[in-house]
Structure formats: structure tokens, C-alpha cells
Design brief:
about 15% strand; 2 domains; alpha+beta; six-stranded antiparallel beta sheet; about 375 residues
Length: about 375
């Protein structure tokens, strides 16, 4: 039985990686065809910066394409693993059904439930790789994965203006530009408040983040204190009674939090440890973070349950038309998978984030148990 388990599981995993590679190459090819001129222009600018002349050739452009898309294989695995696993199961099981391997195994005295176990073990292996990918690889590659085609030359995300943003203490911080490459703010203007009333304002042409001190180290910063706590720092500048140098602005609005507030996609690339730190800091949407953390495990459970629901379409005693079974599997398995994943991503106002994310798992669990128990053997 161990030989049979390894044989079926390795065939399933082999089909998974083959299908995954084909889909990834296809997706990259479409992007390269659409953005080829952008890649060529970026490669030409890099060549010019290095002292070269003329238009970049095929090999420098291809090197830039590989550098841009190679980290995205981990992001592609994060999104496509459940769907590709369902397809790999269909290809593997349909081949066994077509070649009458299920009939031979049943004739050898092996129950159909035992024959399906290698698929579940293979899916558990893929789920383990998914957890390692989300906890180790994606957090390290988050900056590169958020890059746009227009940022190919710099290699980092472009800077952007920071609108007036409150931190946990109530301080409002505005900046003309935030540069994620240097983790610095340009044109800082902060309003320090106590109990909702304005206590002071801080202005600085530039500030750099210091993780050790937990705030922004200011260059030529100036703190102005108003005459009364209720005075406005913008409309009552004549009432300022004290101006003194400000070298540091303590706040929990770190570069990670600023990037998350601009692009929610980065939150899905954080590790559980980083999500826990953000939850403790309280600088980001708490319900969204909890939904992402619990949904990380809920999505894996859904992928496994949908695989169990789809297996009986091929695990049968007597041969049937493969095309009809494949259509049934795709017509039921794909809508279940996509609906459950969408349900995880969208908040449900009537329930807590944790319960809302687990609801698809609770709904699919009895269906999967019924489908597995009714496999004829």
C-alpha cells in the first residue's frame, strides 16, 4: 500500500507542477507581449545609465523580464494553488479511470476510500508549501511584488504623497512624499493633539524612520506650541508663543503601516508574526487583519474540502465517459472554490471577522464528509 500511495501521490504532484508551470509561463507570456515595449525602454535606460549606447537588445530585455517576473512565481502559487490542485487531481484521476486502474485496484481488494488517500496526502503537502510560502517567501519579496512596470528602472515602488493620517495617540501626520526605498518622509507636517485638542505642530523638511526609537528622526525640525490647547495651528499662527528645535517624532506610523494603508494587497503578504505586531500596535484595521490571518488557514481548508467533494466524480467502480465527469467536476468544484474564496475576502457585517471567514469551511465540511462516505467501493 505504501508503494501505491507514493505512486499516486507523486503522479498527482507531478501533474500539479506541470500544470502550474504551464499556467505561469502562459501568464508571463501574455504580460510580456503586452508590455514588451515597456521592458525594452527600461532595459535601454539601464544600458544608458551603465555607459552604453543604442537600444537594448533581446538578451538585456529578457534578463529584465526574468528579474521582474521570477519573484512572482511565489505570488502566483499563493493565488492559484487550490485551482491548479483541483485540475491536477482531475487529470490524474481521469487517467486512472480511463486506463481501468481503479478497477484493477478494486479487484486487488483495495477500497476506493484508500485509493483516494494519496490525493489528500498530496494536497496536504501543497498546503504545507503554501504556509511556508506565505510565512517566509512573500514577506521577503513584498516590495518587489508590489512594483509596477513603470518602476523597472529604479527597482522599488515609486514614492507617493501621504495624506493627513492619524496614529494611535491621535497625532495627525502629513507628508509631501513618502519614499519606501529610503524609508523617509519629505515635507513633514504633524499636528500633536491631547484629548482631541491641538497641543503643538511639528514641521520638518525631511524625516527618516528609526525602528530602534520607534519614530521618525527629523532633519531641521521645528516644534511650535500654541497659546491655548484649543488654538488651531493653521488659522491662529499669530498666537504661537514658542518655537524650538524638534529632532524626533514618536509615532507608530512606520513604513510598513504607511504602505499597507496605500495598498491593501501588501497585507496579504505579511507573515503571521507581522500581522500580530500590527494588531498589538493598533495602527491598522483590526478586523481586516484578523480576517487575513484566519483566512490564511481557512483558504487551505477550503481547498482540501473542495478536493474531497470533487474526487468522487472520478473515483468510481465502473468506467464512465470522462468528458461528462470532467464537466460535472468543473461545474461544481470551481463555483464552490471561487465562491468560498470570495466569501473569505469580503467582510460580513453581521458577524465577527473570525466567524465570517470560517463560515465557508463550516458549510463545506458536512458536504465533503457526505461525498467521501458515499464513494462506492
Amino acid at each position: 500500500m505504501r508503494i501505491l500511495t507514493r505512486f499516486i501521490m507523486f503522479r498527482f504532484l507531478g501533474n500539479f507542477w506541470l500544470l502550474f508551470a504551464l499556467l505561469f509561463v502562459f501568464a508571463v507570456s501574455i504580460d510580456v507581449l503586452i508590455q514588451w515595449e515597456v521592458f525594452v525602454d527600461a532595459a535601454t535606460r539601464l544600458l544608458t545609465a551603465a555607459g552604453g549606447t543604442g537600444r537594448a537588445g533581446f538578451l538585456p530585455t529578457l534578463k529584465l523580464v526574468v528579474e521582474f517576473h521570477s519573484p512572482r512565481v511565489f505570488q502566483f502559487y499563493q493565488y492559484m494553488m487550490p485551482l491548479v490542485a483541483l485540475g491536477a487531481m482531475g487529470f490524474t484521476a481521469s487517467a486512472m479511470l480511463r486506463h481501468r486502474e481503479f478497477v484493477a485496484l478494486l479487484a486487488a481488494g483495495i477500497s476506493m476510500q484508500k485509493i483516494t488517500w494519496p490525493f489528500l496526502l498530496g494536497m496536504l503537502v501543497l498546503c504545507g508549501l503554501q504556509l511556508a510560502n506565505q510565512e517566509v517567501m512573500l514577506p521577503r519579496l513584498a516590495t518587489r511584488l508590489l512594483m509596477e512596470h513603470s518602476e523597472l528602472v529604479t527597482g522599488v515602488s515609486a514614492s507617493w504623497a501621504l495624506p493627513l493620517a492619524p496614529d494611535a495617540s491621535g497625532t495627525l501626520i502629513h507628508a509631501a512624499r513618502f519614499d519606501p526605498a529610503t524609508q523617509s518622509l519629505v515635507g513633514i507636517y504633524a499636528i500633536v493633539r491631547e484629548g482631541g485638542a491641538v497641543r503643538a505642530r511639528i514641521e520638518a523638511p525631511r524625516g527618516t524612520w528609526s525602528a530602534e526609537r520607534g519614530g521618525w528622526v527629523l532633519e531641521k525640525g521645528v516644534e511650535s506650541t500654541t497659546a491655548r490647547p484649543g488654538d488651531s495651528p493653521t488659522s491662529a499662527r499669530a498666537r504661537v508663543i514658542e518655537r524650538r528645535p524638534a529632532e524626533f517624532l514618536k509615532t507608530d506610523l512606520d513604513p510598513t503601516t504607511l504602505s499597507l494603508r496605500r495598498n491593501m494587497l501588501q497585507a496579504h503578504m505579511l507573515s503571521l508574526r507581522q500581522i500580530g505586531e500590527l494588531l498589538e500596535a493598533g495602527t491598522f484595521d483590526q478586523s481586516a487583519l484578523r480576517r487575513i490571518a484566519v483566512g490564511r488557514f481557512s483558504s487551505l481548508a477550503i481547498a482540501l474540502l473542495v478536493l474531497v467533494i470533487s474526487l468522487p466524480f472520478f473515483a468510481m467502480r465502473e468506467p464512465r465517459p470522462i468528458l461528462g465527469q470532467a464537466v460535472l467536476c468543473a461545474g461544481i468544484g470551481l463555483p464552490l472554490l471561487l465562491t468560498a474564496m470570495i466569501f473569505i475576502a469580503l467582510p460580513v457585517g453581521a458577524v465577527t471577522p473570525t466567524v465570517g471567514v470560517l463560515m465557508p469551511v463550516i458549510a463545506l465540511l458536512p458536504i465533503a464528509a457526505w461525498r467521501f462516505a458515499t464513494i462506492k467501493t
